[in-house]
Amino acid sequence: MINSQEVIKRFLEDEVSSQELYEAIYDFIDSVHIRNGEFEGNYFIIKKMDVTNFIIYAENIYPENIYPDENHREIPYSTSIYKENLLREINERARDKKYILKPRN
Length: 105
Prior knowledge:
3 helices; two-stranded antiparallel ribbon; alpha+beta; four-stranded antiparallel sheet; single chain; 36% helix; globular; 6 strands
């Protein structure tokens, strides 16, 4: 079983992989104009429940050649995280990768 810290670690490794992705993810999370919705990354989905609460999960969608009657969707693991904690984790990853950090609104 994967714990919450492992989900965050995998998310950061997979999704915060360039300056552009860092900025796009950061802007989605920090925006007060987006009250809820989803950000689809390369492998992970960031689900914005409201302006301060998020769920991060990996999503596997299998094509019709594996499941011929439908697109089969599996969510093997997820975690919930508060906005400030998520932004802190993203900025730590960006700092380690030597990206230019976004200023706080």
